[in-house]
Design a protein that fits this description.
alpha+beta, Penicillin V Acylase, Chain A, nine-stranded mixed beta sheet, disordered N terminus
C-alpha cells in the first residue's frame, strides 16, 4: 500500500476541516434581513439601549427579537398585575384587545405590534398578537374595567382606579439658568414593573421623526412617557388621579401617544394628535415643549374636558392633580382641599422649588429635585408617599386604605433633558431611586405580606448613577 507523505496528509486534513466548517455554517440559521439596521448595547447603569430602524413591521420584529428575554419576563409581570389588580382573567384582556381596541388601531401600529410578536416568537418567547395589544394598553385597562364593572353591577377591587403615576416639570424663560427649556420626570409605579421599565429606545421609523424614549419591553409607546424627537419636541406627562371616563369607540391612548411623539413637529401637532379619537384612557397632564420656539405647554387631557395652557416664560408641573374646575367636578372625585393627599403635597413642593430656584434651574438642579424628600404636609424631610422622590413602601401610613391601590410603589425611573441636549437627541436617565436608596424585595415583602402575590417575580432594585443616552450611540 503506497505511503502518503506528511505534507499530503496535512493538506487532506485541512480540506476535511474546511468541508466540515462549510457544512456547519450551512446548518446555522442565517441572520434575518429585518435585523440589518438594529442593535442593542450592553447594559449601562441598569438600562438596556436598543436601536430600531425601518418599516413598522421591521421595527416590531427588531424590538421583539432583540428584547425577547426581557419581553418574556415583562409579559409575566403584566399578566400578573392586570389579572390581580382588576379581578379579570388574561383572556378577558385579550378578548377586549381584539374586539374593542384592534378596530381603532391604524395599520402602521398593527404591523409593528404583529412584528413584536413575530420577533419574540423567533427567539422562543410564546406571545401572540393579542398578548402584545393587551400589554400595550396596560395603563388603560383600569379605566375600561371601572366602567365595565359599574355597568354590570360588579363590585370592583380597590385597585381598579386611575393610577397616580409620576412627578414632572417643564420650565423655560426666566425660570431656567440659560432661558431655554429644562424638563424632568420620574415614574411612580409598582416596583414589580418599574424595575423592568429600563429600556432606552432609539427609533428611526420609515416615516415620521427619529425619537429617543425610555420604555418597557413589548410596548410601542413609552408608557412612562419621556421622549424627544428630531423635530424639536420634548414630551412627558403625569396621570390625573381619581379620573373616571372611557370611550370604547376611541383610539387607544398607547397608539395616540406613540403617534404624537413620532409625527409632531409643533405643540399644535401634539395637541391635535392626542385629541383625535381620544378614548379617555390614561388621562394625563401632558407637559410638552418645542425647543425651536422655546415654548412649553400643559395639555390636560380628560375625556369630556381638554384644556391647553402655553407660555414662553414660566413652568408647568405635574404630580397627578387635575387643574380645570370643570374637569375636576365632571370627570374626577379628586380631593382638592386635602393637603395630606400625595398629589397635592407634591404639587405644593413643585411650586416651592420653582419659586426658590427661579433663574437657576438646569439639568443638575432638576436631578436634585427628583431626589427630593421634603414632605410639605409634615414639613420635614421624610421619604414617603408625599415626596417627589416617592417611597410609598416607606410611608408610616402604609396601613391606610389607599395602599392596595398604589401597591408596593416608588419613584424608580428618572429622566432629565434640556434644549441643548434635546438638539442632539440626548437625555440623562437614572434607574432606581434618584435619592440613592435601594429597594430590597425580601425585606419589603416581610414588612408587607399583603403583597406576597408578587413574590415570584419581585426582585431587588438598587439605585444607579445617572447615565447619558443619545440617539445613535
Amino acid at each position: 500500500m503506497p505511503q502518503v507523505s506528511t505534507k499530503t496528509s496535512a493538506v487532506l486534513a485541512s480540506l476535511l476541516l474546511l468541508l466540515l466548517a462549510v457544512s456547519l455554517i450551512s446548518r446555522e440559521p442565517q441572520a434575518d434581513p429585518r435585523l440589518k439596521n438594529a442593535y442593542r448595547r450592553p447594559e449601562m447603569n441598569g438600562w438596556t439601549y436598543v436601536h430600531l430602524e425601518g418599516t413598522p413591521a421591521e421595527l416590531g420584529f427588531q424590538h421583539g427579537y432583540l428584547l425577547a428575554p426581557e419581553l418574556g419576563d415583562a409579559f409575566k409581570v403584566t399578566q400578573l398585575e392586570l389579572t390581580h389588580d382588576n379581578g379579570k382573567s388574561w383572556e378577558f384582556f385579550r378578548t377586549a384587545a381584539k374586539e374593542m381596541l384592534w378596530p381603532h388601531i391604524e395599520q402602521e401600529y398593527r404591523d409593528e405590534m404583529q412584528g413584536i410578536a413575530e420577533g419574540a416568537g423567533a427567539r422562543g418567547v410564546k406571545v401572540d398578537l393579542w398578548d402584545i395589544v393587551a400589554m400595550n394598553a396596560s395603563m388603560e385597562w383600569s379605566y375600561y374595567v371601572n366602567q365595565y364593572d359599574k355597568e354590570r353591577g360588579i363590585h370592583s377591587p380597590p385597585s381598579v382606579t386611575a393610577p397616580s403615576h409620576c412627578s414632572a416639570f417643564v420650565a423655560t424663560g426666566s425660570y431656567t439658568k440659560d432661558g431655554r427649556i429644562v424638563m424632568a420626570h420620574n415614574n411612580w409605579t409598582q416596583y414589580l414593573d418599574g424595575e423592568r421599565w429600563t429600556v432606552m429606545f432609539d427609533i428611526v421609523p420609515a416615516q415620521g421623526h427619529r425619537f429617543i424614549m425610555d420604555g418597557y419591553p413589548g410596548l410601542i409607546h413609552s408608557g412612562d412617557d419621556f421622549g424627544i424627537n428630531s423635530a424639536g419636541m420634548m414630551v412627558t406627562e403625569t396621570t390625573i388621579s381619581n379620573f373616571h371616563g372611557w370611550d370604547a369607540n376611541g383610539i387607544p391612548e398607547c397608539v395616540r401617544a406613540r403617534k404624537a411623539l413620532q409625527y409632531s413637529s409643533s405643540i399644535d401637532d401634539f395637541v391635535r394628535i392626542m385629541k383625535e379619537g381620544n378614548n379617555g384612557g390614561y388621562a394625563n397632564n401632558w407637559l410638552v415643549a418645542d425647543r425651536k420656539t422655546n415654548e412649553i405647554a400643559d395639555l390636560e387631557l380628560g375625556l369630556k374636558n381638554v384644556n391647553v395652557e402655553r407660555t414662553k416664560d414660566g413652568y408647568f408641573a405635574g404630580s397627578n392633580f387635575p387643574i380645570n374646575d370643570k374637569m375636576i367636578h365632571e370627570e374626577t372625585d379628586f380631593p382638592v382641599g386635602n393637603l395630606s393627599n400625595s398629589a397635592n403635597a407634591r404639587h405644593v413642593r413643585w411650586d416651592q422649588l420653582m419659586k426658590e430656584n427661579k433663574g437657576k434651574i438646569d439639568v443638575a438642579a432638576a436631578e436634585k429635585f427628583l431626589a427630593d424628600h421634603y414632605d410639605t404636609y409634615e414639613r420635614k424631610e421624610q421619604a414617603d408617599e408625599r415626596t417627589l422622590c416617592g417611597h410609598i413602601d416607606l410611608s408610616p401610613r402604609g396601613d391606610l386604605p389607599w395602599m392596595p391601590a398604589y401597591g408596593m410603589a416608588g419613584a424608580v425611573i428618572n429622566k432629565v433633558s434640556d434644549s441643548a441636549m434635546a438638539e442632539k437627541l440626548t437625555l440623562a436617565a437614572d434607574a432606581g431611586h434618584a435619592c440613592g436608596l435601594n429597594f430590597k424585595a425580601a425585606e419589603h415583602l416581610k414588612k408587607h405580606p399583603e403583597f406576597a402575590w408578587q413574590k415570584s417575580l419581585l426582585r431587588d432594585m438598587d439605585a444607579h448613577r445617572w447615565a447619558t443616552f443619545s440617539a445613535g450611540m
